[in-house]
Design goal:
Length: 290
């Protein structure tokens, strides 16, 4: 099943007076770029959470935020009066320098880092399991979101591939006319100069075949058809590989470019431009495939 790297999920668990809320967001990235925010009292769990995320979500730019709320009335805090005074003094000096008298400097100082802290020695409840469960819930919801996004992404990619396949079929009539026109042009040129040069018809036929082969695009059309088929096969596998889809799209682009360079026909060139437009859509969407 195709999965997108774009995802979102939340998890919520409770343990006694503690409530743990986890939020996960993920975007596309070549590797697993994980960012974890968790209260310092439980920072020892960060490595465990990182492993949970890497194992389940594989890759992407993943950010997780863990919030721990204690609803108990018995919450001891530490108040650093000296630090509060230092913050207030510095804020007031800046405010005076800027002639700003409207700022609530006391509130700013009270909310400055480390002025008020929860006493770690009173946290006697081990809620690590509840935190892990909350993260697991968020991961599950995020993965479900990725699957939903992946289904929509799969439909779009199939539509783009079908469009390229349809455009490829439109080349056939022009291809047949193109070869005939090249041959007629060469014969007309030779006919107009037959009085000036002696022509060896056998040698002319050989050169004509060689010249036409340089413009032949049948091999490119066959390879392009195979690449389009293989793209759909990979797309429908149980574990679709976004990187592999990217490699296949590069091969598709190579064959389209070769057809364009060999075409020597305005109608085929227009079709090639349309195919390139669809291919760019594929490349853009494939970047978000897990």
């Amino acid at each position: 099943m195709l999965k997108s790297m774009t995802g979102y999920g939340m998890g919520n668990t409770k343990d006694g007076s503690y409530e743990i809320n986890t939020e996960i967001k993920s975007l596309n990235s070549k590797f697993a770029d994980i960012s974890v925010r968790i209260p310092s009292q439980w920072s020892s769990l960060e490595l465990v959470i990182r492993k949970q995320l890497a194992d389940a979500l594989v890759r992407g730019k993943i950010s997780v935020s863990v919030e721990v709320i204690n609803s108990s009335d018995d919450v001891s805090t530490l108040f650093d009066e000296q630090l509060l005074k230092q913050y207030y003094k510095q804020f007031k000096k800046v405010a005076d320098d800027l002639n700003n008298k409207d700022s609530d400097l006391f509130s700013l100082a009270m909310h400055a880092p480390n002025v008020i802290k929860v006493r770690e020695d009173v946290i006697d409840t081990d809620i690590s399991i509840a935190i892990k469960d909350s993260v697991s819930q968020a991961i599950g919801n995020c993965d479900e979101f990725r699957q939903q996004e992946g289904a929509e992404l799969s439909d779009k990619l199939k539509m783009y591939i079908d469009t390229i396949s349809t455009l490829l079929q439109k080349i056939d009539p022009y291809d047949e006319q193109r070869i005939k026109k090249v041959e007629e042009k060469l014969r007309a040129g030779l006919e107009s100069n037959k009085n000036l040069v002696d022509v060896d018809n056998n040698r002319f036929e050989q050169e004509l075949i060689y010249y036409i082969e340089k413009f032949d695009i049948n091999e490119e059309k066959v390879r392009l058809t195979n690449h389009l088929t293989y793209f759909i096969e990979v797309l429908e596998k149980e574990q679709a590989n976004g990187k592999k889809l990217g490699f296949i799209s590069q091969e598709i682009g190579r064959e389209i470019n070769t057809i364009g360079s060999k075409a020597n026909n305005a109608d085929i060139q227009r079709i090639v431009v349309e195919m390139k437009e669809e291919l760019e859509k594929i490349k853009e969407q494939a970047l978000n495939v897990l």
